[in-house]
Amino acid sequence: TAEVMSHVTAHFGKALEECREESGLSAEVLEEFQHFWREDFEVVHRELGCAIICMSNKFSLLQDDSRMHHVNMHDYIKSFPNGHVLSEKLVELIHNCEKKYDTMTDDCDRVVKVAACFKVDAKAAGIAPEVAMIEAVMEKY
Ligand code: BOM
Q1: For the residues 32-44, what does the mean pLDDT come to?
Q2: Nearest atom within ligand 1 for CA of residue 97
Q3: Which CATH class is domain 2-140?
């Protein structure tokens, strides 16, 4: 659900500042991670892909090939309030997007495509959070 997704985004987004330098993602492109979900934010920058890889690695959510670690992602989502209602759906959506871009060899380029696909599909599935929902739970993390 969008409510659970707001918690996940608030928590995951806290890792952005630790990853800014090594990813090269400027504040001009993305100031706060929750803006990822804004209607007018375009998920297109290679540096965002690099940042998502770096952030995911802080929580062991990726395998060595920079694809999602299914079990760890499942457990991570389940750790949030009502996470069990979202975990399977989220892993399915992300994996479906990974399959579409599997031939791309540059990890940062591929992951930003996967993230853009995930944003579209999460909206369609009704689990995309509003930025205001994320801001309401930011202080919990
Ligand atoms: O193949 C690489 C898999 C990358 C997984 C992350 C994709 C989605 C990242 C963008 C949105 C994040 C919002 C919340 C955190 C979800 C883990």
Answers
A1: 98
A2: 1
A3: mainly alpha
- Residue 52 CA to residue 72 CA, distance in Å, equals 16
C-beta of residue 9 within 8 angstroms of C-beta of residue 129: yes
Measured CA distances, 11 to 46, 72, 124 (Å): 22, 15, 23
Distance CA 131, CA 107 (A): 27
What is the pTM for the complete model shown? 0.97
For a mutational test of ligand 1's pocket, the pick from 48, 56, 76, 91, i.e. the residue with the most ligand atoms closer than 8 A to its C-beta, is 56
For 10-24, what is each residue's pLDDT tens digit?
999 999 999 999 999
Q: What pLDDT, on a 0 to 100 scale, did the predictor assign at position 92?
A: 98
Distance between CA 49 and CA 47 in Å, rounded?
Answer: 5
Neighbour tally for 52: CB within 10 Å: 28
| Among 65, 43, 56, residue whose Cα is nearest residue 16 | 56
Task: Give the residues surrounding ligand 1 with Cβ less than 6 Å away.
Answer: 8-9, 12, 36, 52, 56, 67-68, 94, 98, 111, 114-115, 118
Residue 99 Cα to ligand 1 middle (Å): 14
